[in-house]
Amino acid sequence: MTRWWDEFVAAVGDHVPGGVPVLAVILLLLTALTSLLIYTWPAWLPSRWWRRLIPRRRARREKRGRAVAADEAPEAPEPEEPVVPEDEAVPDVPAVVLTLSADQLAESGRYAEAVRERLRAIVRDLIERQVIENRAGYTVTELATAAITARPDLAGPLGAAGATFSEIWYALRPATAADDAAMREHAARIHAILMPVPGSTA
């Protein structure tokens, strides 16, 4: 093995001016240059190359990290109770407060929100009068349906109020002042059924 190497170096040295000593100097210079390039990388590389190369490597590492994190992340627990969207919930405030809020919204021309608040006020009034219970996870329309089941005599005005609300908030029909006026009338009829005037046949 040593003899082969000696013969190879001698053969290469025959083609280098100065022979083997010059070849040894050239090899030492190449070794030093290679070490310098490695030590100073990537300063000597054109910026348009390494600036593209480094972000790609970083992006691949981050992508692998996200994949590992997703595999190791625990599954989110299922909610114990259904989550009701805010627009379909019944706030835990007195019915009279909801009615006043509906009046203010109607005065400012926000009829869709006024319709929503009036149905909320109607349902809250039914809860306060113990016609129905405020069941967790129920929407305002589901509570209205439960009230009709408990009190079939409320089916006319309460069903109409729920239908108006659904047309505006589910079917996205533009609300008008007439819708707010109709909700006021439905609320008055429901109040008359729940609190009949003495001597009336309602």
UniProtKB/TrEMBL annotation:
The chain crosses the membrane at residues 20-44. It comes from the Bacteria. Residues 119-186 form the Protein-glutamine gamma-glutamyltransferase-like C-terminal domain. Keywords: Membrane, Transmembrane, Transmembrane helix. Residues 72-88 have a biased composition (Acidic residues). InterPro entries: TgpA-like_C. The keyword Oxidoreductase does not apply. Residues 64-88 are annotated as: Disordered. This is Protein-glutamine gamma-glutamyltransferase-like C-terminal domain-containing protein.
